[in-house]
Input
Amino acid sequence: MSSSILQPESYSAIGRTSGKMGAHKVRVAIAAAASIMLLVTIAIYGASYYLLPIEQRPYSDKHALLRPSGTIGIKLGILGTVLFCIIFLYALRKIIPWLGRFGTARQWMDFHIVAGVSAPVIIAFHASFKFQGIAGVAFWIMLAVALSGIVGRYLYAQIPRSLTAAELSFAELEAGERELAEALVGQSLYSPEQLNRALFVPSSEHIRRIGPLRAVAEMMALDLGMPFRMAALRRQSCNFSQRLRSLGGLRSTGNVEVERIVQLVRRKSSLSRSIVFLGQTQRVFHLWHVIHRPFSYAFAVLAVLHIVVVMGLGFGGIGLR
Output
């Protein structure tokens, strides 16, 4: 009986892949952290101004700084415009060949999401939370685009490059699971029933019967429940002190053998879910494209129109006081 599933070399390929993505994850984390720090700083500094009724703001000491045409306000508008350009670089990389050499589509999308989430908040501060006229319409469309972008990123992550490739990986994981189950019989760590509870995925027949939107909702519920299922699996094989250190199984127990098994179960469960939900996910993703793109283009037109009007009227023009 082979027990390679429980050996470190069985996970060397996973480690190499994780290493390649490590630098990218650090860059995304730095970008996200910088955005959060900037927004928190502005919110703290400007709270006393933004919470004032609009008619009282001109009497505030911070009005010359934080109004849309103020020293800080106009810089926030410029930053929002830069983020707006970064957002659309993701689409432009498909038609500008040299952009495509700077990372994969998934890596571009990560920065696309960071910029897309940050931009509406920065623009809200730029506008000092006055959403009127063209700028107001553009802001609400941008907010809708940002929220739909988060949903789209989640759906994109659930679709394998091809179902055939996913099934091949799934077959490999199933073979690994059989090897794991044989090893577990000898070690008495988990019973088949315990593993089945951790690996629960609805049947393909059930997913076909329900609508696409409900299927995606169930898939999201499975994702949200994943940490708790893994925590339950950990708790079944650790003592009281390990449960305390792992926060009830939500973190690593420090038991190398248990954590390898949990990793395999997590990967198999995720891949099984992707295959079962694939058809419905593709339908919703197609619908998302139909909605997301026109809203994105509408926002682009309104944003450019707003910038042209502002530059034509001057920074003290209508809607900037």
